[in-house]
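Async update (no meeting this week)

Hi team, since we skipped the sync, here's where things stand on the single-chain job. The sequence we agreed to prioritize is pasted below, unchanged from the tracker. I ran it this morning and attached the output directly underneath so nobody has to dig for it. Comments welcome in thread, and please keep replies under the output.
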Amino acid sequence: MRVIRRLPETLINRIAAGEVVERPASALKELVENAIDAGASHLHVRLSEGGLAMIEVSDDGCGMRPDEIELALERHATSKLPDEAIEMVETLGFRGEALPSIASVARITIESRPQGTADGWKRVVDNGVLVSEGPAALPPGTRVRVEQLFEKIPARRKFLRSPRSEWAAASDVVRRLAMARPDIGFTLEHDGRRALHVQAGDTLEARVAQLVARELAGNSVEVDLYRGDYHLTGIAGLPTYNRGVADHQYLFVNGRPVKDRLLIGAVRGAYADMLARDRHAVLALFLQVPASEVDVNVHPAKSEVRFRDPALVRGMVVSGLRHALSTGDQRSAQAPSASAMAAWQAEPIVPSPSPGAQGSMFSQQWRPETRVSEAGQAWRGYEQSVLAPPQARAEVAVEPVTESARHPLGVARGQISNTYIVAEAEDGLVIVDQHAAHERLVLERLRAAGAGQGTAPAQALLIPEVVELEEVACDRLEEASPKLAEFGLALERFGPGAMLVRSVPAALAKGDPAQLVADVADDLAHHGDALLLGEKLDLVLATMACHGSVRAGRTLSVVEMNALLREMEVTPRSGQCNHGRPTWVKLAHADIEKLFGRK
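Output:
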């Protein structure tokens, strides 16, 4: 029978290191957080081979005395927890085993000089063994160097990734921490090359734009919401500014970068009816909550948190984002992309001359004796061969050109392919996707009706329609029926496998009730129990709006086009459709002049 025994200290530290130090980025995170908690105003981070060979963090914080350096390398020793109230953590961390854990699996050199003193001190520990200590020359602050991580533990070393992958993870750690503290300057070097440098004192918006993407500044709205002692701030990208992966979503709780499932789900719910399912928002959100309302000790690396009132937090994130996006005017894509501009033809396409011809009509010299009628016939022949069939039409403008100055989206001048509205604005040319725009308008009408602004107008069916569905689908619809009725969709259970449709939203009166109900049932099933009923219904409204929107290919009169433009100008989120695509783009006068070589 095996006896119970105490493990040696070195093995205990290595076990602790397995929880805290998974890879170079984990060690770097601990060191940078320590430097921030030390009151640094600038941090200098140096890496070699992605952190596999060397990690060095220098700061100008408070510094440590020799006895404090020795104590910092002991397990469960910290300056970040003034008493035994472990639930009242107000710093980035207090876990006392970070430094000793790193020291047990690498060679660590700590040099520090307290502010206001003339001398510094150095202590070197190699895989848990004290190597040397003595005076050190350095400016006030602390410098920690970690070398040869897991070099003497091959079982751990072989599971590390390539230097390039480890560098990507380490860079992400520094970016997230730098984003949370715009009052601190950060410099990051990798293999002697400067990869990042931000100055202390940036505004939150400027810091986020520098670290995420500079174009985010022009494609985002500010988030600022208070609920009691809770405060949500940040930058949220417009739905039209999205990505195929969720790697540009930065979430912080009390200044701590987290990857929390509750917050990620709330972000997804807030953008649900504004993005396609395979697209993801770009944002940085900062949530401040009382320390007693959040548990930061759920995960050893402190990347997850637990809230005392998760429903309040989720609702705050969803409503804060939606309010910010709805008040972010009706912006669409800020300008056509470079690739879209390059697609414009710089010169007219001239039809190739037929075999044996002397040249095209435009290559022949004009001769005075050419009769006008012959020239006219030639031009008409060219029109018929090149421009038929017509792909656009224009009508007599109902409003004069001067009216365009009164309307941001201008006045309608024509329609292309019965799909795109062309309007003239004071500062350029506006092109509107009529289906995408009207889909958003219908959605916002339905949503307004269900947001305490009264029941949506409904169109009663002369003969109620029976829609046969699976029993579980009918169960979901029956559960949601009271709320669906507020939007004008009145349903009743009609046996185990059927629903009776008594009315539909007035905006969808011309649609197919059976198909509408089937699609609503599919949406309720797709989103499952992960979302609250209200959030699921928001997604259902997007499906309903699609049924009632003006389709591409429908001919609109100028009056109808202008009515659509005017409604877009006063409707929240009208700059993007329910799938995150822009509903309109604008070619500024300068862009048009560039196309014609005037600039």
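Quick observations from my side:
Confidence is low (pLDDT under 50) at residues 352-376, 378-388.
DSSP finds 17 helices and 25 strands in the chain.
Reply here if anything looks off.
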